[in-house]
């Protein structure tokens, strides 16, 4: 079934699936998080006995200076890892009852501080792929399209629906619009609780107001619960929140309605100056980073925390939590409507492959630049080793060309590191939201790369192979293509493994370059396998994918080719042969004599191909294992 654009636009009104009819309240009690200090080896408190409650249709702002614990609290409330080796004590309630992590994931969504968006997709495509990755199989295509169009309308994105998100070399939508797309993509599953980590980070005051305004409209209209960590909002943005939870050094400095902030601080002896942004004042007031008198600021914070614990608002928060927990059991349930429905796991790799193909052909950084690099390398190689003749003087030149073609094609796979790191960053964020795991990501990444690597191989070979004058038969040409294709697959698999271990561009680049230098050194060209040091030979040579590519290309070139020896007029021998000639009275060298000097045997190509495939699988499995273990 297909739908025209005008039909889709008619779907963009209200949609009932987003409206919250099951979650009445969300509360937390006694949230305490401690970690062991690596230097002192003592327990350090990040959060201390934090309570709070938010009702449906309300927006809560988590505020505090840097290091106050607001991001940690947001992660605890969202059932995410608070910190490495953290000891967490918390009671989290939905409608006054505790909920399992699996059920909680079905009714909540988390928007990261950094946008997990593919820059080469349009706004509508971004929401479409979000829907395909997260919605259960019971949701029809018509309903999926309806949700997409409704969100485009609700977030004011219809005018930008067909615009690209934006890449470093292709301008896209604005920063505020990107944040709206990030929020909308999380609302595609109709969550009842929405967690936002610094939704206004990197935005100016106008864009910040725009983002929070759209979120507030959605929350009020559809009765959602929104909890957002936010850093020093403008006066107008701050006023749009219903409640505030202010943290300082892990403790509560204020928790309650935004409208009561000024009266509370005035009555506590810390009046907010007139005509000053309340959010700015209270953040500066509890900030200890720039204190000149440490003792004085500590006393001030103790007074703030003490005033809060003795306040009527603190008592009201605890009473509100107890009221929610004391309701009849029939009212303290939060079963999601689609609890038994799940996303089709077999379709996820297909969706990821589809998205990756779009990204790859639109974003020249992924493969476009690499194709240009390889074509330049092919022209350079073909013209440097231009039309080599079949004389013994050119045997070493042919060997050099074989090594160069395989080794440097492999080395230039480092150009894939930036594209992979971008894909990995998106995977980490989508995995944290429970969309898919490392298996789907690795499978999709591998399959997406195959056609591009084959195109690169063919374009390079068509130019370099025939210009160099390698053995001029169709069979030899396609055998060369096979070896080079396997070489590039193994090189890209190595990039995936190293970049998964160290997902930092400069470090991954250095490590990959070092690994390629190692494989070149022990591959059999610079030092023949028989002369190679025993340690390097048995530890690294036999697991070096470049060595099998070099062997395969050598056999492909020299097994069935002959070379003319250098004539020596007037001498006792009619010619001088660098290798043993095929017959004493002939000035012809069989290529197998060249292979014998390296210790390479013919008829083992199938074994070498099998070993290469095994190396590729090994790299991918290790890459999968690293992604499985690492969560960030």
Automatic annotation (TrEMBL):
- State the name under which the record lists this protein: ABC transporter domain-containing protein
Could you tell me the keywords of this UniProt record?
Answer: ATP-binding, Membrane, Nucleotide-binding, Transmembrane, Transmembrane helix, Transport
Membrane-spanning segments: 364-386, 398-421, 442-468, 608-629
Q: According to the UniProt entry, which residue ranges have a biased composition of type Polar residues? A: 329-341
Q: Which PROSITE patterns match?
A: ABC_TRANSPORTER_1, ABC_TRANSPORTER_2
Segments forming domain ABC transporter:
26-274
Q: Which organism is it from?
A: Cryomyces minteri
Question: One cellular component GO annotation, for this chain's record?
Answer: membrane
What would you give as a GO molecular function for this chain, any one? ATP hydrolysis activity
